[in-house]
Amino acid sequence: DVVMTQTPVSLPVSLGGQASISCRSSQSLVHSNGNTYLHWYLQKPGQSPQLLIYRVSNRFSGVPDRFSGSGSGTDFTLKISRVEPEDLGDYYCLQSTHFPPTFGSGTKLEIK
Amino acid sequence: EVQLKESGPGLVQPSQTLSLTCTVSGFSLTDYSVHWVRQPPGKGLEWMGVMWSGGSTAYNSALKSRLSISRDTSKSQVFLKMNSLQTEDTAIYYCTLEFLYSGQGTLVTVSS
Question: Starting from the edge strand earliest in sequence, which strands make up the sheet with A19-25, in order?
Fold first, then answer.
């Protein structure tokens, strides 16, 4: 199985500041069709995970442009600018290029 | 509007079988796949298995011997059955439309 290494585990940020989360895969996430199936989710307290970014850099419907994704191959980053209180929670990356789909272990974004 | 809703018993005794239902609306099960994901309390996300749009299934190898996923397209429902439950199977169980939309999850506690 593809191992997704997500860092940091915890990320204290100031409101209005910027946050960056890394996700590295144990093998390339480029599919044979040329697409890269790396996605980012936010799980707010007591809620189910909600999709933020799909296929590395595409914001899902309704996601503010403060969220951006980048990367390629095995190295991916989620950046959150101008952090707001509603952004706090657990962030997960997911790869669905290879079977089975595997998640990163999560990053808790909290107030500094 | 896409909706998914999980339902099932909140409490299951050890060694018994878990049966969950995911009722969907806003899309057809014959057009999209539905995955099951679980999350033990305070821990990360684990992919369990998938009902593909064509009707075939695939499972996490760690759960394959205990897990079965089926569907009733006429009722827009996907079913999860897992036997020989143990305390470590205590988790919130989610169904998700191709990792785009998820239900709110249902907590299953395995305890005598």
Answer: A4-7, A19-25, A75-80, A67-72
